[in-house]
């Protein structure tokens, strides 16, 4: 027994020494001293939209709002039917369609290409507030609504949102003419296509109307109208009765720079069309409706846009609709209150007036 143990020990001894050496080598190596001043780029903020969005120096995106998606189907309140369609498999661009109840099989109805807001960084067509709003819009206006889920910044910075919406508009026109989407092919009226959007979506709607005039789309000679709901426009200098809070302008410029990747300054025509009045002569539509809310940060910009459009020599009709005592896009949350109902009625009259 003793001889066997010593033979084993003699054979294993080199390996024991190696293990002891490795143990001491590992445990007594000098360790790097943590730098208490160094911050983790995955937790260090680079940009924040309070309560809605955070962007970290590592490139990590955290969306605190606008991520919930509600399913399609038949809305129990309005009877409107909705469905999702991916129109570009490579980019994932999709739209959510809404079809109102009570439409005869051969009846042609207006088409509203709706573009949601959210500062270009949050929300989709499936967000609860926008899904509800498009159900109401389709029901009240007796229109096919096509709500665009454009790609968001910062993963896809401006002008991607414009390009996605432009592609969606071309898809709508194609399907009205000869496509496979039955709601558009059977019921879509090519002569009554409207663009509509709130906040950032209104910004996109304006820029798409300009692009339509510049490039055109085969089979669609003109857009019927554009509805800009509490539009997101700004500029380097305050106008009208705008607040002169010293912290506001830098934050607005930081936000625009963030969503555009620093490509366009605060006076660029994308965000400050009033500084480029030539764009108003390029609106490819017959009429424009601008809605503003008294307490909205952007109220002066919406009024200035409507006034500049009227004075530009553009030959279309401009309607400015003002709501007292309300804040930015109030109609999304107060959709069933009197002021929101009246604004919806004004929009429906604008869409269906001829």
UniProtKB/TrEMBL annotation:
Domain of life, source organism: Eukaryota
Residue ranges constituting the Alpha/beta hydrolase fold-3 domain according to the UniProt record: 112-331
Active site per database record: 199
GO terms, molecular function: hydrolase activity
PANTHER family from the UniProt entry: ARYLACETAMIDE DEACETYLASE, OS09G0461900 PROTEIN
Protein name, UniProt field: Alpha/beta-Hydrolases superfamily protein
